[in-house]
Model the fold of this input.
Amino acid sequence: MRKCIRCGSDMKEDCGIKVGGYGYGIVLTSDENKRFGDRMGSPKVAICPKCGEVSIYLEDTGKLK
Done:
């Protein structure tokens, strides 16, 4: 369970993130200079129900190594 860095409350995990008006979403890549770098996956979002803090994280970190 993720804890909020601001207030310490339990965060609601496994939320998504979308770019307004588009269905493409966001994909993390290993090299910003390559048009199609190695894809590391889609980011997940955790939201604090108490203060509204938003945390973006990568669930599978295996591709970072």
About this structure: DSSP finds no helices and five strands in the chain.
